[in-house]
Design brief:
With 149 residues, this protein is mainly alpha-helical. It has one domain. The longest helix is centred in the C-terminal third of the chain and has 45 residues. The N and C termini lie far apart (43 Å). Keywords: Membrane, Transmembrane, Transmembrane helix. This is DUF8051 domain-containing protein.
């Protein structure tokens, strides 16, 4: 289950990475964003951070860390927001229309992000319940355990 979750997260990272402006898929013009450097560089730093944090999360999810599932849930929501805002032409806007290939990749990314959110929210609930059961069981066992001296 962790492998599946990590794989979904990795696919989101990979598909976002190929959407770099001026790259093989993204051909829209965002020169107007450069007029306000805080927005341009802020958005770029946000996307790069999302990619780097998600790559690290792929590893920590495989290690079954509860905090990694919680952070991955947030990352999935952020991926979803990035794609839905772009597909609805809210941000970033461009005078150049979105190509069909770009739109297809963004729709796939958005569905993967939604899957991430659904999958991680289920994983987090399962892990919390499982962890609570382990703690409860260990407390019962420790109460009856008398070490030999």
């Amino acid at each position: 289950m962790n492998l599946t979750t990590s794989l979904i997260l990795f696919l989101n990272v990979t598909l976002l990475s190929i959407l770099v402006p001026g790259g093989p898929v993204e051909n829209r013009d965002f020169d107007y964003l450069k007029k306000t450097p805080s927005i341009y560089y802020g958005f770029s730093i946000f996307l790069i951070s999302l990619i780097l944090i998600s790559l690290a999360l792929c590893y920590f999810v495989l290690l079954d860390n509860l905090w990694a599932f919680k952070v991955s849930l947030a990352a999935g929501a952020l991926y979803f927001m990035v794609y839905i805002l772009d597909l609805l032409k809210i941000f970033p806007r461009s005078p150049t229309p979105m190509s069909k290939m770009l739109m297809l990749i963004e729709i796939i990314n958005m569905m993967l992000a939604l899957l991430l959110v659904i999958f991680f929210s289920g994983q987090t609930v399962y892990l919390k319940q499982h962890l609570h059961f382990i703690i409860k069981t260990s407390q019962k066992n420790s109460a009856t355990y008398i070490p030999n001296v």
